[in-house]
Design a protein that fits this description.
Elements lengths: L1 H18 L11 H14 L10 H9 L1 H17 L1 H4 L1
Length: 87
Amino acid sequence: MHLVFGLITTVVGIYGILFLLNNLMTGRLSQAKRLYVIEKLRSNRTGIENKTFKTGQMIECLKNPHTWMLSVITVSSNVTNGAVSSF
């Protein structure tokens, strides 16, 4: 069972490394596809790449109750079983 699931995980990981785009500018797209995607992003008013840290977004995330609920669910499900359920 471990070998089967390990093989599936390895295949999906290799697929992700080889075929999924890191970002639009360094991805392996043709010029026509790249222009199409850029126009689609422009119509959605989203950017191509942004590496600046925005403190306001972090504060908004910390004020969001969904963030805290998901954190409590994750911690409580892992604390009760310890290392056995995590692995």
